[in-house]
Amino acid sequence: MFWILQWGLQIIEKFCINVIKCGPVPKHVAFIMDGNRRFAVKNKMQLSEGHFRGFDKLVETLQWCLELGITEVTVYAFSIENFKRSEEEVGTLMRLATEQLQKLLSNEVIMAEGVRIRIIGNLLLLSEELQKLCAQVVLKTKDNDKAFVNVAFAYTSRDEIANAARIIVEGVKSGEIKNEDVDEDLIGNCLYTKNGADPDVIVRTSGEVRFSDFLLWQISNSQICFIQVLWPEFCIWDLLVCVFRYQRCCNELKKRGNKRKNKNERIQTFLDRLEQQRLKQL
Ligand code: FPP
Ligand code: MG
């Protein structure tokens, strides 16, 4: 069983999930899974163990998201900046990705659950073996449509936007599209994330309050949740807090919408009365 676990949740967890599900649940949540190395240091482990625990936590989190009805999840698994880390650490992360993608290919749970995996990023920066594995996983799951897991690998937002700009310039140069065709929709459709929805919520663990070049175009309207715990410590209660904050924000927006509606109705009634009065005076 890989990527999607099938162990049961505790009764109290199930109960709280069902309560939270009575309100609006975000369709798409993005995670910056930060704090693996600090977790390793804190627990006197090898740094690589921190990343392994981080992967286990990702698997657990995907299951919670599915239970909650969050149908799309995007995770920041490896930033282009991460290539600057030591050779040993980059090697560990690449091996971890290779192993897990291989396991994914030979496992049917993901197909049975109808999960589509998309890998977003500058895949040309990866080894040929990893590029091939990414392509195999993406192709194998491409017709699944019950849930979506987007893995940002060799990704930064600036690279993604620069790449989109290059694609668009090529299109204009070749005459396939015109200058005036370039708008927000076209740019969005040339990003690595073109097939997905924008995240409703972005979560970053470990207390860091930064976006680190992650989905900068896509999160312009997302709710932001900075969580203090290190990624391997992230638990279902942290996720429920994020969803609860999202629900509070939705309610607030709804109230503001109602206030605006009330105001418009009030003004319209006032204007109608003035018009009636004017007609009477004629
Ligand atoms: C950030 O913690 C984490 C990463 C750079 C790697 C995240 C990767 C995983 C959780 C594994 C996922 C793998 C796959 C194949 C999807 P950090 O290293 O920045 O830790 P620190 O903030 O404590 O230094
Ligand atoms: Mg970090």
Automatic annotation (TrEMBL):
<protein>
    <recommendedName>
        <fullName>Alkyl transferase</fullName>
        <ecNumber>2.5.1.-</ecNumber>
    </recommendedName>
</protein>
<dbReference type="InterPro" id="IPR036424">
    <property type="entry name" value="UPP_synth-like_sf"/>
</dbReference>
<dbReference type="Pfam" id="PF01255">
    <property type="entry name" value="Prenyltransf"/>
</dbReference>
<dbReference type="GO" id="GO:0016094">
    <property type="term" value="P:polyprenol biosynthetic process"/>
</dbReference>
<dbReference type="GO" id="GO:1904423">
    <property type="term" value="C:dehydrodolichyl diphosphate synthase complex"/>
</dbReference>
<keyword id="KW-0460">Magnesium</keyword>
<dbReference type="GO" id="GO:0045547">
    <property type="term" value="F:ditrans,polycis-polyprenyl diphosphate synthase [(2E,6E)-farnesyl diphosphate specific] activity"/>
</dbReference>
<keyword id="KW-0808">Transferase</keyword>
<dbReference type="InterPro" id="IPR001441">
    <property type="entry name" value="UPP_synth-like"/>
</dbReference>
<comment type="similarity">
    <text>Belongs to the UPP synthase family.</text>
</comment>
<dbReference type="InterPro" id="IPR018520">
    <property type="entry name" value="UPP_synth-like_CS"/>
</dbReference>
<dbReference type="GO" id="GO:0005783">
    <property type="term" value="C:endoplasmic reticulum"/>
</dbReference>
